[in-house]
Structure formats: C-alpha cells, structure tokens
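Methods — Computational structure assignment.
A single polypeptide chain was analysed. Its primary sequence is given first, followed by the predicted tertiary structure written as structure tokens.
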Amino acid sequence: MTQTTDHPSPAATPPRPASTATTAALLLRLVFGALFTAHGAQKIFEWTIAGTAQAFGQMGIPLAELTAPVVAALEFGGGIALVLGLLTRPIAALLAVDMLGALALVHLGAGLFVADGGYELVLALAGGAAALALTGGGRLSLDHLLFARRRTASPTA
C-alpha cells in the first residue's frame, strides 16, 4: 500500500523566487558597496594616499600616515567585497567601525548636515554597514555560494 502526501518531492519543487530579505540584502550590498568603493577610490586615485594622509592629519585623525592607506584600502576593497557579497559580515563590521571613527573624530562637532561637514552621510554609511554585518550578504552573494553548503553540512551541537 502506498501512502500519498500533499507535499511534492524536493526534486519536483520549482525554484523559489528571491525573497524580500534576499532582495533587500542584495540592494543594501550594491548601494553601500558602490558608495564605499567610490569613497575609497577617491582617497586612492583622486586625493592620493599622501594627500589623504595630509588631510587626515589636519582633521586630527591619529596616526594619519598609517590610517590613510588602511582606510582607503578598506573602503575601496571592502566596497568591492560588499558588491560581490564576499566576507560580507566581517567587511561590513569593519566599515561600520570606520564610519563610527569618522563620526567621532571628524563630523560629530559639525552638526547633522553634510553640507556643513556634518555627520549625516557617515551615520547613514555606518547604519548600512552595520545592517549588513548583522544580516550577512543573503542568498545572492558569494558568501552563500562559497560557504552555505559548509554551514548546512556541519553538525550542530
């Protein structure tokens, strides 16, 4: 005697469309990744690392000669990594810390509005990066492609 169920077999299940959370993660990654990439590129290619270090020094950022190349590389490379969804959580966490540092060291005293040197942009960038650090890259990311199988195959404690 065979038993029937109301549930189709996994092989017969058609692929599901992207969920709202998947689409949101992709949108966050693309927008914030592009913004961070642009800001890093500006520090590297437009202002140069030496010019960025000089500007950081004038803004009172500690160890400007060391901080400038690290921040520029993090923003440029980290922005590209966010777009791809590669190492999303750690990269996004570092970018959130980067923006909180910019907020505290440079922009907080100038008020809210970016036109006055204020913190609205760095706060928005910190918030977007923090959201990605909490949620991850989503199903449409290299993280999912490279690491999802390992997570599902590893035993739970």
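Note: Residues 40 and 72 are 5 Å apart (CA to CA).
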